[in-house]
Automatic annotation (TrEMBL):
Record protein name field: SET domain-containing protein
Organism name: Mycena belliarum
InterPro entries, A to Z: SET_dom, SET_dom_sf, SET_domain_protein
One Pfam family this sequence matches: SET
Residue intervals of the SET domain: 127-303
Gene3D superfamilies cross-referenced by the UniProt entry: SET domain (2.170.270.10)
Length: 426
């Protein structure tokens, strides 16, 4: 769309909400690493002292929502609706929904450049879950019928997407303690996210505020508290702006997405579903990682799964619960299996089969090592000319989280024999 188009009165009537982008720019940031604070804070709504922010906000007028972001300061952040909607759109006229986002220009440019974006939501052929109360975990998602490994269970656009790292630039006026810095950061974080919340439509505002909040007494405001409790990390908007080290230590380039239904998924250390964000449909898609029976709870993991039970419980502290899943109830045996499978070098078929048995016993089909090991085992069977067993593992691989689409080729005898490792006839 040409820039000039937007200045006509007819075009103004068609402008999307993005034409009133709020852009905040400031002098170079001081990067602040803040440790998680889990104590109790009184009066969290009062602005803490000892710092000032450099932010000066301005409203960008007549910006085409679909225009390239290249001319914007890379440190400006944008309040934007994605996919872009018309001023008169509602959830009734646009039932796939949209996310209210705080994005940096590189992430928005990457989204707009994704082939197919914004494609319609891909929905499963029938609904297979319900959101219902549990005796001890609040709400949760439960299957309403048998679900097979690899099945799509639900796909949903986020309510909100915002940076998972501190974006407010601050200058400290005196030496602050870690806790004082933390309080300053969460206070400013809430202020930055308020305009994003204000842009939500009434239904999504209510849905957002109805979500659980395990950060009510640690200084987090109501928006930040809900994001910290309910968000799923998105690493797929990486444009190369941040280094791997910055991503890992400061979570730079990582975003947090909050959902109406997906955020009701409770935690297990042996999760039976996994999520994948598809930029083209702008939705999180939830798949089964193993067969799930009727009335089973659908769970994801909020922690790293190769760490031991004690470390996982420490990670879960900020969510305000102690995990009582089977792995945490019998930590000695479970920790041992996880340690062995994470450190086991797979040099031969026997190692691969042993690793798979450990991962399956621990219910770790959602992790990358599981599909990597399936592929390893499939290839070893192909290498010794055992088509029947190779096909068994290729079929498991196809249903798997990280499987390359390639695996489908090896689910038939002809496919297996076309593999480069298949023994050549002499
Ligand atoms: C993302 S929400 C999950 C949905 C939540 N149960 C609800 O009612 O909206 C995270 C919160 O759910 C609860 N939760 C999640 N997994 C749990 C578990 N395994 N055991 C106990 N509580 C859990 C904790 O209160 C946690 O802070």
């Amino acid at each position: 769309m040409k820039r000039g188009f937007l200045t006509t009165s007819k075009a103004q009537a068609k402008l999307s909400k993005d034409t009133n982008l709020r852009v905040s720019t400031a002098a170079k940031p001081e990067t602040i690493a803040v440790k998680k604070f889990l104590g109790v804070v009184e009066n969290a709504t009062v602005r803490p002292g000892g710092y000032e922010t450099d932010s000066k906000e301005r409203v960008m007028k007549e910006r085409d929502a679909l225009a390239p972001m290249g001319d914007l300061d890379e440190d400006a952040f944008l309040y934007t609706s994605q996919p872009s909607i018309g001023l008169k759109d509602t959830l009734q006229t646009y039932p796939d929904g949209w996310a209210e986002c705080v994005l940096y220009p590189d992430a928005k440019a990457l989204i707009l450049a994704t082939p197919g974006f914004p494609a319609a939501l891909v929905r499963p052929s029938s609904r297979s879950y319900r959101v219902t109360s549990t005796p001890d975990k609040g709400l949760g998602l439960f299957s309403t019928r048998k679900i097979s490994a690899g099945d799509l269970i639900l796909s949903e656009r986020p309510l909100t997407i915002s940076p998972a790292w501190t974006i407010t630039r601050m200058r400290f006026l005196r030496e602050l303690t870690e806790q004082e810095k933390y309080l300053a950061v969460v206070y400013e974080w809430e202020k930055t996210l308020q305009p994003m919340f204000d842009r939500l439509c009434p239904e999504n505002k209510s849905a957002f505020m109805a979500l659980a909040n395990s950060h009510q007494h640690d200084g987090s405001g109501p928006i930040v508290g809900r994001i910290r409790t309910n968000s799923f990390g998105l690493s797929c908007f990486q444009s190369g702006r941040f280094t791997a080290e910055e991503q890992r230590t400061m979570r730079k380039g990582v975003y947090s997405a909050v959902y109406n239904e997906i955020s009701r998924l409770n935690h297990s250390c042996s999760p039976n579903v996994y999520g994948h964000f598809d930029i083209a449909t702008f939705s999180y898609q939830i798949f089964a990682v193993r067969d799930i029976s009727k009335d089973e709870e659908l769970t994801v993991s909020y922690t790293g799964l190769y760490s031991d039970s004690k470390a996982r419980q420490a990670e879960l502290k900020s969510y305000g619960f102690q995990c009582t899943c089977p792995a945490c109830r019998a930590p000695t045996e479970s920790d041992m299996r996880r340690t062995i499978s994470s450190s086991l070098a797979t040099n031969n078929l026997g190692d691969g089969l042993f690793k798979l048995s450990l991962l399956e016993e621990e219910g770790l089909q959602s992790i990358r090592e599981y599909s990597e090991t399936l592929e390893f085992v499939m290839e070893r069977y192909i290498g010794v000319g055992d088509a029947a067993n190779a096909i068994i593992y290729a079929k498991k691989l196809v249903k798997c989280r990280h499987s390359a689409n390639d695996a489908k080729r090896y689910t038939t005898a002809i496919g297996v024999q076309s593999h480069s490792l298949w023994p050549k006839k002499s």
